[in-house]
Amino acid sequence: MKNKFGDSIANKVYEYRVLARMTQKELAENVGVSKQTIFVMEKGNYVPTLLLAFRIADFFKVDVTDIFTYEKGNDSNDDT
């Protein structure tokens, strides 16, 4: 999901979930959110809170940066 600066957070939630042979519902139940939250996150339409990002990473036993990646946009916000 991009903001006005063009920054975004990419994620590999789908890849990790499929490799673990889990449904969206199963992952959601394990990290304390709804299936819909997992669905929109996998589609790139929702950026999770830090707490949720860490829960997901902890669930898969990986570092949070293995699943979530900051992608810097253009710094075209020059008002000076």
Automatic annotation (TrEMBL):
The organism's place on the tree of life at top rank: Bacteria
Record protein name field: Putative transcriptional regulator
GO molecular function: DNA binding
InterPro entries assigned: Cro/C1-type_HTH, Lambda_DNA-bd_dom_sf
Phylogenetic placement of the source organism: Bacteria, Bacillati, Bacillota, Bacilli, Bacillales
Residue ranges annotated for the HTH cro/C1-type domain, each copy included: 13-67
Keywords: DNA-binding
Gene3D superfamilies (alphabetical): lambda repressor-like DNA-binding domains
Species of origin: Streptohalobacillus salinus
Keyword DNA-binding: yes
